Amino acid sequence: MDTTALTLSPSAAARVAAIAAKQGKPAILRLAVEGGGCSGFQYRFGLTDAADADDSVTQTDGVSLVVDSVSLDLVSGCVVDYVESLGGAAFRVENPNASAGCGCGSSFAI
């Protein structure tokens, strides 16, 4: 398990903990990358019950961020943040590997 490739911001960790507590689930956020979106790849977030054997895991304030080994190549070095603004609230990925992204920030290209 690689614990340095990803960062979960304190605000994202707090939001995951709040969502997990409401749903009665462990505070484990899974980040995956799928083909699609307007730029070629898109991020998918969801709560999970446990990390898989080949997942990369990082923790912030007792909350885990897990990424599968296939997605890790595309998101290595990323910071996952939770941002609230007038336009709404959402998890955002700051991806140093992305060469382009869409306006909404939910998809990217390598």
Keywords:
globular, 3-stranded mixed sheet, 19% helix, alpha+beta, Hypothetical Protein Aq_1857, Chain: A, 9 strands, 110 residues, 6-stranded mixed sheet, 44% strand
Summed up:
This protein has 110 residues and is α+β, with helices and mostly antiparallel strands. It is 19% helix and 44% strand. The protein is built from 2 helices and 9 strands.
Topology:
Elements: E1 7-8, H1 10-23, E2 28-36, E3 40-47, E4 56-60, E5 63-67, H2 69-75, E6 79-85, E7 88-94, E8 100-101, E9 107-109
Parallel strand pairs: 1-6, 2-5
Antiparallel strand pairs: 2-3, 3-9, 4-5, 6-7, 8-9
Structure, explained:
This protein has 110 residues and is an alpha+beta fold. The chain has a single domain (7-109), classed as Hypothetical Protein Aq_1857, Chain: A, CATH 2.60.300.12. The chain has two helices and nine strands. It has helices spanning 10-23, 69-75; strands spanning 7-8, 28-36, 40-47, 56-60, 63-67, 79-85, 88-94, 100-101, 107-109. Strand 6 (79-85) and strand 7 (88-94) form a beta hairpin. The radius of gyration is 13 Å and the shape is globular. The mean pLDDT is 83.
